[in-house]
User: Fold this.
Amino acid sequence: MTSTASLNYAPDKFQSKVAFFYREGDQRFKPVRIVINQKRYPTLASLMIDLNRRVPLVRGVRAIYSPRGRNPVDHIEEIVNEGRYVCSSSMARAREV
Assistant:
């Protein structure tokens, strides 16, 4: 019989996070709450595919920015727990919410 102390346990480097995504330039848009983990969203591209279905933008979600539209999110690891982000359909700097 083995004890749980003897089992090898390595916690994930990438813990689950909750993030809120807003539509660019739309103050009335209710933010989309997404739980992000490595299994469901291994890359930023996979997150953006899901955001295309949930955040209605004419040309789709092509970029994710900080709330003021200043800093682009380039990697999934840059998203912080309880973070707020703006979805944009252009690669240029996003308008704030």
Summary: The first strand starts at residue 17 and ends at 23.
